[in-house]
Design a protein that fits this description.
Layout: E1 4-8, H1 12-24, E2 29-33, H2 37-51, E3 59-62, E4 73-76, H3 96-113, E5 118-121, H4 126-137, E6 144-146, H5 150-164, E7 175-176, E8 184-185, E9 191-192, E10 195-196, H6 197-204, H7 208-216, H8 218-226, H9 231-245, E11 250-258, E12 263-272, E13 275-279, H10 286-309
Parallel strand pairs: 1-2, 1-4, 2-3, 4-5, 5-6
Antiparallel strand pairs: 7-8, 9-10, 11-12, 12-13
Helix pairs in contact: 1-9, 3-4, 4-10, 5-7
Length: 312
C-alpha cells in the first residue's frame, strides 16, 4: 500500500518535517504546499537533488491540493514565526491574527480535495487552531489532532533527565493542557528510576516547580537563540504521523477532543491508523484537575472568540 503525506506550510518547521520524512523514507509520496511558490519549488528541487544519495525514493508533488485526496496524513505547519519577535510574555496567541484566516482558507481547500485521512496540526496556537481545523474541514473529531504537549512533555523529560544524568527516554510522564502558558507537568503521573518522581525528588532534594518552568520555557530558550524552533516540533509531528501510518496504537500526549471540557486539549491518548483510538484516564491530584480545567476553559474561550471574530 502506497503511503502519502501532505505538508502544508514550508517555513522553518514544515521544511524540517519534510526533510525528516524524506530522509527517513517514511512515505512513498509527499505533497508540499506553500503560498510562497519560489520557496516550495526550491525545497522540492533541493529534496529531489538529495534523492540520488538516499536509500529511499519519494515522489514529490508541489502545490496540488487535489493530490491530498488519498493522503494518509496531512501535517499543518502554517505559521508566521516573525510575529513572535516582540513577545515578552511568550504568548503563542500573537500568531492568531494571521493563522486564523490562513487556517480557514486552507481548511476549505482540504475539504474540497476530498481528503479523509488524519490531520495533524502544528500551527499555533495549537489547541485553538486544531479545533478550527475540525470545525472547518468537517472531519471526525478523532481524525483531527494537534502535536500539543507532545513536545512540551519531551522538554520536561529533557529537564528531568539532565537533573538526574539519564536518557530522556528513561523518563515517563506528561505535560497536560494547552500547548502554551497554561500547560503544566502532571508530576503525579511522572515516573523515573523505577519510582514516582515525587518520591525521587524528595529523596534528592529536587525542585519540581523549577523543572516545570524549565520545561515550559524550553521553546523560548530555543527561539531567543535562533528566532525560530524547528527540530523538536518536527520530530514530534513526524513521530505522530508514523504512529498513525503504522497503526502503532501508541500512548501519546496530543491535543485531542474532550467532551468533558468541550474543547481540544493535550492529554494522553492511544493513537493509531484511525486517529484517536482510545482516550487514557490519569489519576490526577485535585490540584492537577483544577489546572487542567482552567487550561481547558482558556482554550475554549479563545476558540469561541476567534470564531466570532471571523463571523462564524
Amino acid at each position: 500500500m502506497t503511503r502519502k503525506v501532505g505538508v502544508i506550510g514550508m517555513g522553518h518547521v514544515g521544511s524540517t518535517v519534510a526533510n525528516y520524512i524524506i530522509n527517513g523514507g517514511f512515505t512513498d509520496d509527499i505533497v508540499l504546499i506553500d503560498t510562497n511558490e519560489l520557496k516550495v519549488n526550491a525545497d522540492a528541487t533541493d529534496f529531489t537533488d538529495a534523492l540520488a544519495n538516499l536509500p529511499f525514493h519519494t515522489k514529490i508533488t508541489v502545490n496540488d491540493y487535489d493530490a491530498l485526496k488519498d493522503a494518509d496524513v496531512i501535517i499543518s505547519a502554517v505559521g508566521k514565526i516573525s510575529l513572535q519577535k516582540d513577545n515578552p510574555k511568550h504568548d503563542r496567541f500573537v500568531e492568531l491574527p494571521f493563522t486564523k484566516q490562513a487556517v480557514k482558507d486552507v481548511s476549505a481547500k482540504i475539504k474540497a480535495s476530498g481528503f479523509n485521512g488524519i490531520l495533524i496540526d502544528i500551527t499555533n496556537p495549537c489547541d485553538v487552531i486544531t479545533t478550527m481545523y475540525q470545525k472547518y474541514t468537517g472531519l471526525p473529531k478523532k481524525h483531527v489532532m494537534g502535536t500539543g504537549t507532545l513536545l512540551d512533555s519531551s522538554r520536561m523529560k529533557r529537564a528531568v533527565a539532565q537533573e538526574l544524568n539519564i536518557d530522556p527516554r528513561s523518563v515517563d510522564g506528561y505535560n497536560l493542557g494547552e500547548h502554551g502558558n497554561s500547560q503544566f507537568t502532571a508530576w503525579s503521573a511522572v515516573r523515573v528510576l523505577g519510582h514516582p518522581i515525587t518520591k525521587v525528588a524528595k529523596e534528592r532534594n529536587i525542585d519540581l516547580t523549577e523543572l516545570d518552568e524549565i520545561a515550559k520555557a524550553g521553546g523560548y530558550t530555543v527561539f531567543h537563540g535562533k528566532l525560530y524552533t524547528n527540530y523538536g516540533i518536527a520530530s514530534a509531528a513526524v513521530r505522530l504521523a508514523r504512529t498513525i501510518m503504522s497503526d502503532a496504537h501508541t500512548e501519546l500526549p496530543v491535543s485531542n477532543w474532550h467532551e468533558e471540557y468541550n474543547t481540544y486539549l493535550s492529554y494522553p491518548a492511544i493513537v493509531g491508523r484511525d486517529g484517536i483510538e482510545e482516550q487514557v484516564h490519569l489519576d490526577l491530584t485535585d490540584e492537577e484537575k483544577e489546572k487542567l480545567a482552567e487550561s481547558a476553559n482558556y482554550i475554549r474561550t479563545r476558540f469561541e472568540d476567534t470564531v466570532a471574530s471571523l463571523g462564524d
